[in-house]
């Protein structure tokens, strides 16, 4: 009886061990061929850079990956997260080629990220550009007056409640915020000029917040070529010196939240962005997605 039990457990344990080994080897890219192009997708509002940074580092250190393709479908987002991704892209592009593929919209922070790639490919109708910084506060004073809603504010300094929706903004507050906007705008222009190898003055001429379609962006030097996702894959293969057909692998996204399932991915991300009270109130963001 004991012998039968031993053989029965063995019949179960051996296949289970093989399955676990296969799964682990798959995660470690054990059976991969050294001709891979890794695709990292950036979708929706840019309010968190951690996952993208980890993916870039992972594929940068993977010898099987010869090039990285960043697929962007984003109207922009927080300045801090956008800058973190750009920094990691620059670090990566020094070791292996990075191609940015712009989808339907890659504006403001979306384009800012793309500018750090070695090569940018957009569709002729891609909504891009929108180089600038935006900061908005609601003014609900008249509404509050009508309903009799008032707030008592106790603060440590004159600017601590800047943007209070229950009152008018003071000239001093507006001047301070404009100074902050100008500083962030200067960083945007400087980084785009650096990434695209363009004079800062030339970038400033079109960095007035205007949206630009892909075809015009190419003429202005903001985009290298016009094409779709497959064209971007071909460009990545060429820059990565891949012989034959490349193996395209996709970065596994984090699990979607319940809010994403209920409202849809982008809607969930957008609502979460505001409900979480994100500190990224200064945004590289297109007016197409207020």
Fraction in beta strands? 15-25%
Helix and strand sequence: HEHEEHEHEEHHHEHEHEHHE
Q: What's the CATH first level of the domain at 32-132 and 197-285?
A: Alpha Beta
Specify the CATH architecture of the domain at 32-132 and 197-285.
Alpha-Beta Complex
Could you tell me the radius of gyration in angstroms?
24 Å
Number of strands: 10
Q: What distance lies between the first and last C-alpha atoms, to the nearest angstrom? A: 71 Å
Topology-level CATH name of the domain at 32-132 and 197-285: 2-enoyl-CoA Hydratase, Chain A, domain 1
Question: Main sheet, how many strands, which sense, barrel?
Answer: 8 strands, mixed
* Count of alpha/pi helices: 11
In oligomeric terms, what are we looking at?
single chain
Low-pLDDT runs: 265-280
Tell me the structural class: alpha/beta
Mean pLDDT across every amino acid position: 84
CATH superfamily of the domain at 32-132 and 197-285: 2-enoyl-CoA Hydratase, Chain A, domain 1
Helix content: 40-55%
Broad shape: elongated
């Amino acid at each position: 009886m004991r012998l039968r039990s031993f053989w029965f457990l063995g019949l179960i344990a051996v296949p289970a061990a093989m399955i676990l080994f296969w799964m682990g080897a798959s995660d470690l890219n054990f059976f991969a061929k050294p001709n891979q192009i890794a695709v990292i997708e950036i979708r929706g509002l840019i309010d968190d850079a951690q996952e993208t940074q980890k993916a870039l580092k992972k594929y940068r250190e993977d010898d099987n990956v010869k090039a990285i393709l960043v697929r962007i479908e984003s109207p922009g987002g927080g300045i801090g997260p956008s800058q973190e991704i750009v920094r990691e892209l620059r670090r990566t592009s020094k070791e292996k080629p990075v191609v940015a593929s712009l989808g339907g919209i890659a504006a403001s922070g979306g384009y800012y990220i793309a500018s750090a790639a070695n090569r940018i490919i957009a569709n002729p109708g891609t909504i891009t550009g929108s180089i600038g910084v935006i900061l908005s506060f609601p003014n609900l004073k008249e509404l509050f007056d009508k309903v009799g809603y008032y707030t008592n504010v106790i603060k440590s300094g004159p600017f601590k409640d800047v943007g209070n929706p229950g009152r008018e903004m003071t000239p001093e507050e507006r001047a301070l915020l404009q100074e902050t906007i100008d500083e962030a705008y200067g960083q945007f222009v400087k980084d785009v000029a650096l990434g695209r190898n363009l004079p800062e003055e030339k970038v400033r001429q079109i960095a007035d917040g205007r949206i630009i379609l892909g075809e015009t962006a190419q003429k202005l030097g903001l985009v290298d070529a016009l094409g779709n996702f497959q064209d971007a894959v071909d460009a990545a293969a060429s820059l990565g010196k891949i012989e034959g057909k490349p193996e395209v692998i996709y970065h596994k996204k984090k699990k979607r939240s319940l809010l994403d399932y209920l409202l849809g991915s982008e809607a969930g991300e957008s609502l979460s962005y505001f409900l979480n009270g994100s500190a990224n109130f200064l945004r590289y963001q297109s007016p197409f997605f207020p």
